[in-house]
Amino acid sequence: MRCSNSVSEYFVKYRRNGATLNLADDTKRQMLRHTVATLAYRGGKAVRHASEEFATFRIGENTRTPEKILAHIGDLLDWALSLAQGKHVWHDSTPLPWDKEVERFFLALKKFDDYLASDAPLEFSAEKLFQGPIADALTHVGQITMLRRLADAPVRGENYFKAEIIAGRVGPEQSVTRVEFD
Predict the structure, then answer these.
(1) Who contacts 84 (Cβ-Cβ below 8 Å, separation ≥6)?
(2) Domains of the chain
């Protein structure tokens, strides 16, 4: 291993599966994977046990319904994967039925996380992937959670600091250990 000091960061070069990697970049990538797992945990909680009727709940004439928000989150995750692969591909998807849109959410999370877990290079920085599609998706999960409360189907509050969130766990099966409150 070789160390060098650059702009107050230490970069350690190492090899993984034949590729030379930068330890700082790998750490950022792992943090991004943890963020994607957090999105899966929080998003899963927001959509779990939501009724088909909730999908079309609307609080105002010019607001998105939960199904449109969830479709947008799926589009954001697809975009995140395309950016990671060096493409800039955006689609505005027509919402699917609620249960299919929930499936799409978890499938898109898995595809993106699988790419992050691979040795394939990130064509855009982890910071850019976070500040764009991932941060936006987290915001929209909060909107769905808020809409659940307004639709009289609230999601219980939780101390997320104590949540068991693990990089790579991006499906609907999440830890049942929770510190929830009303």
Answers:
(1) 112, 115, 116, 120, 122, 123, 124, 129
(2) 25-181 (1.20.120.450)
Tens of pLDDT, residues 81-138: 999 999 999 999 999 999 999 999 999 999 999 999 999 999 999 999 999 999 999 9
Radius of gyration over alpha carbons of the chain, in Å?
18
- Residues paired with 4 in a beta bridge: 11
Q: What is the dihedral of CA 87, 13, 16, 26, to 10 degrees?
A: -50
pLDDT, one tens digit per residue, over 36-58 is 999 999 999 999 999 999 999 99
Torsions phi, psi for 97 (to 5 deg): -55, 150
If one counts every other C-beta atom within 10 angstroms of the C-beta of residue 162, the result is 10
| Max CA distance (Å), the chain | 60
Residue 47: its pLDDT value, please? 98
Per-residue HEC secondary structure of 127-160 comes to HHHHHHHHHHHHHHHHHHHHHHHHCCCCCCEECH
CA dihedral (41, 22, 82, 79) positive or negative: positive
pTM: 0.87
